[in-house]
Amino acid sequence: MQHPGYGMTLASRPISAPLRRGDIIAFDFPRDPTQQYLKRVVGLPGDKVQYRERQLFVNGGATRVRPLDAYFEPDRLEAMARFENSLDGVRFDTLLNETDPGAGERLVREHGCVYEHLVQTCEVPPGHYFVMGDNRDNSYDSRFWGFVRAGHVLGKVVRIMQ
């Protein structure tokens, strides 16, 4: 499969292990299945995912562990806040653009999600996943277009080469 945004070919194999929170997956984009996306799984079927005050909570638990040194975005010539996160033992960093305090407020209000008082809460339906990008303010993800059907998952990302 050719990933249009990254100019690389992704190998696809049947998923031999269940998906876990924290996995990065390749999937057919729900709004245009001719495009493939890569995102991090943050919600499994039955999970309650909540995004409030620009932080992610899964089943009531915060995923953010601690702040880290800022990340300098060379393309934009600006620093972004960086945080260490953990989901089911998988550690990863996320970025926030603190110069755009309203960035996290542009969220979907459909697909079984409830949006009240700047808080988005979604219960992940059976056979679906809730995915997010790690650059939270610059990611078109489940907060905007809803869930990824299990049948659209192409595979897990098992290695990233620099």
TrEMBL record:
Ranges where the Peptidase S26 domain occurs: 17-158
Major localization listed first in the record, in broad terms: membrane
A GO term for molecular function: signal peptidase activity
Domain of life: Bacteria
Enzyme class: hydrolase
Protein name: Signal peptidase I
Matches recorded under Gene3D superfamilies: Umud Fragment, subunit A
Family of the protein in this entry: Belongs to the peptidase S26 family.
